[in-house]
Amino acid sequence: MATAQRFHIDQNGHSVTVQVAGVHGAVELLVDGKVVAYRRELGRETAVLDAELPDDPPRPFRILLAPVARGGGPPLCLLESDRTRYLLPLTPQSDRRDHALGAADAIRILRRRIRRMRRVAMRRR
């Protein structure tokens, strides 16, 4: 099982994301990329996070995280707004290499390219 889960939905023009670190880890609720609610650990009972969408007037909503029986996978994540519940889909975590290289990776790639350039230059002589 993955060490972290990420749930995401677009709701009324706003991005709502829930990130769970590990099976019983910390839970972050993000609206439009900003953390608006946080819970230290998930626990065995249904976790409830309350927040608001930044509209005029602000629209309250609630996130419900219900652990799956027997610990067999990610929790169920529901968004409750205006007496309606929406199931938030589990989205894949992006790999660090998709966004940016670390300094060690960049140096390794540069050294490899310099070696290849030297080999090509030596062949041309």
Describe this structure as you would to a colleague.
The protein is α+β, with helices and mostly antiparallel strands and 125 residues long. It has 2 domains: 4-93, Beta Barrel (Lipocalin), CATH 2.40.128.180; 94-125. The chain has helices at 96-99, 103-124, and strands at 4-11, 14-21, 27-31, 34-39, 47-53, 59-66, 76-81, 84-87, 90-91. The strands form 2 sheets. It has a 5-stranded antiparallel beta sheet, with no helix packed on it. Strands 5-6-7-8 form a 4-stranded antiparallel beta sheet, with no helix packed on it. Strand 7 and strand 8 (84-87) form a beta hairpin. The longest helix is centred in the C-terminal third of the chain and has 22 residues, at 103-124. It is elongated. The termini are far apart. The model is unreliable at 95-99 (pLDDT under 50).
